[in-house]
Design a protein that fits this description.
Blueprint: H1 13-26, E1 33-39, E2 45-46, E3 51-52, E4 55-60, E5 65-71, H2 89-106, H3 116-135
Parallel strand pairs: 1-5
Antiparallel strand pairs: 2-3, 4-5
Helix pairs in contact: 1-2, 2-3
Length: 140
């Protein structure tokens, strides 16, 4: 039997589905059809920012459909993320899930021609709100 990590159990597909349903309802995204995939970490590479990300949402706004991809928990190295070392896998992924759902909330107001600075501002705002919703605070 595998020894449990100090960062807690690693989320599985059922955990993602349960959390997705909870946060989709809580954020008022019930009109969206949102699925999720767990993929190898290298598949979630952000070409614009030149980084591998924990999650990514792709969507089709007119049909209100989206898919959120998450880095496979086995590929995640907690110390590489902006959480402290004692963060639980489930906490890290829940913040990532809410982060991606918040991007869906902003779709109607986000201009695709935003400057790089404005895209960075959106990322900062989305991350701050996700942390407040999940953790009750901005910091770790």
């Amino acid at each position: 039997m595998e020894k449990e990590s100090p960062n807690g159990p690693k989320p599985n597909s059922a955990w993602f589905a349960k959390k997705l349903a909870h946060w989709q309802d809580r954020l008022g995204l019930g009109g969206w059809l949102i699925g999720h995939k767990i993929v190898r970490g290298k598949k979630i590479y952000d070409e614009e920012r030149k980084i591998t990300t924990l999650g990514r949402v792709t969507h089709h706004y007119p049909s209100a459909q989206a898919v959120i991809e998450f880095m496979r928990p086995d590929d995640l190295e907690v110390e590489d993320w902006i959480f402290n070392y004692s963060a639980k896998y489930e906490t890290i992924y829940e913040v990532a899930l809410v982060h991606e759902l918040l991007h869906l909330l902003f779709v109607p107001i986000v201009d695709l021609d935003w400057s790089e600075g404005m895209k960075a501002d959106e990322e900062r705002i989305v991350e701050t709100v996700a942390r407040v919703l999940v953790l009750g605070r901005v910091g770790n």
